[in-house]
Amino acid sequence: FRRSQLISADDFEFIQRFTAAGTEQRRRIAEIEGTQCAQTLLHLVTRIVKESVVHFVLVLIEDLLQENGEHAQIFSVFTRRNHRSQWVLFMPMLNRQEILTMHLAARVVARLAIMSRELLQGSDLGFYLTWLKTHLSVQSWLGGGRRPSSGSRLTSDNGQALHYFQSAASCLQLILRTGEYRFAWVQEDGIS
Predict the structure, then answer these.
(1) Are 83 and 148 in contact (CB under 8 A)?
(2) How do residues 99-138 score in pLDDT, each as one tens digit?
(3) Are 149 and 109 in contact (CB under 8 A)?
(4) pTM of the predicted structure, to 2 decimals
(5) CA–CA separation, 190 vs 182, rounded Å?
């Protein structure tokens, strides 16, 4: 990516150091170089179209947030400085064709929503809750709406579908920790 000039030298150098670092070193890098960290990760996740790279960066972001919830502020501060909303960067990923990308982005949005001082609001919140509702209520997850009989075996397709169903459920569980999101979920009529 560096040779083809898809990413800057600064982003390339940073991502090399960041991915080679251990948990404690990554924490320090994120605290000391918060702006560079947010810039690099957000540039990579929004500018690179190769799904495997997007997956890798989304996992890095989720790990960073999981290691320390305060890291959510580096994304909020960076996007505010650039007169953008952090939600604008991740919401389009929920419409991607690649299901893993959608679910990784949904997990990042859930973590940012509960950890950031900037609440997910308005149309972004409505869109996210509708996305969750859709992914939690689709009966085709387990074979076109049919429940597997007690004698049937779980196929790899059904197992993968169940994994994504559980992923959406864990996102919902995360955001329902916050009162504003619980209220909005009820307003959206939850899963009916």
Answers:
(1) no
(2) 999 999 999 999 999 999 989 999 999 999 999 999 988 6
(3) no
(4) 0.85
(5) 9
